[in-house]
Design goal:
Number of helices: 4
Shape: globular
Structural class: alpha+beta
Low-confidence stretches: none
Oligomer: single chain
Mean pLDDT: 95
Radius of gyration: 18 Å
Strand order of the largest sheet: 4-5-6-11-8-9
Helix content: 25-40%
Distance between the termini: 41 Å
């Protein structure tokens, strides 16, 4: 009835390849309609000398961008359910809450933004136009609202410069726009965005996301 699997990774290709292998084996042996549950995942550079770095990353702004990128990647995959590991205060893999203060960490806001997309109810088509390390998911609601989660995630330490990207909200007349940014300087901070003729050009830091709500 279902097949569950785990994968800890830093590079998105690893988890995508693992998922493709799982789907291929299920189909090969006749389990074509089996529910696929990716029920344990989080950032790990490696389990050896990179483990401490991995734990530090999980609670950082990069960990927040990682969570947003993973959710966008697997929204458009054979995976039926996706479970972040984990949200228990006091554990090394908890990127959501600080152990002592219970203050929210960056990954919390990735889940918060995703919840807003889900509340709108209907996914709409997005394309990153071939931009490497960019991930996007958008949704609209019956109330006329549209929201976009655009993420720039990279596990390459040499990627240190911001990238300028132009967003085209095709066939959507923008009356009002609210933008929140998560990066090394901001933690889901409301940030002005200028949209003209349904287009906006923004600079994105490596390992960041912008969550844009329109109506």
């Amino acid at each position: 009835d279902f097949f569950s699997y785990h994968c800890y990774f830093g590079k998105m290709e690893k988890a995508v390849n693992r998922t493709n292998i799982v789907k291929g084996l299920l189909d090969k042996y006749g389990y074509t309609n089996t529910e696929m549950i990716f029920n344990e995942w989080n950032y790990i550079a490696n389990w050896g000398d990179g483990f401490v770095h991995s734990l530090e990353t999980i609670s950082s702004y990069k960990g927040g961008a990682y969570v947003a990128a993973v959710m966008s990647t697997f929204q458009d995959s054979p995976v039926d359910m996706l479970m972040y590991y984990d949200a228990r205060p006091g554990t090394g893999f908890n990127g959501l809450f600080d152990l002592y203060t219970m203050n929210t960490r960056p990954a919390y806001y990735s889940l918060y933004s995703w919840g807003k997309l889900r509340d709108l109810g209907m996914q709409v088509k997005t394309s990153v136009g071939g931009l490497k390390n960019f991930y996007a998911t958008a949704a609209k609601g019956e109330n006329g609202k549209l929201a976009l989660l655009l993420t720039y995630y990279t596990d390459d330490g040499n990627d240190i410069n911001p990238k300028s990207v132009t967003i085209n909200f095709k066939n959507f007349e923008v009356k009002e726009a609210i933008s929140h940014v998560m990066d090394r300087f901001k933690k889901h901070t409301e940030t002005p965005i200028h949209i003209k003729d349904s287009k906006a050009t923004i600079d994105m830091q490596p390992n960041s996301y912008v969550f844009i709500e329109l109506r």
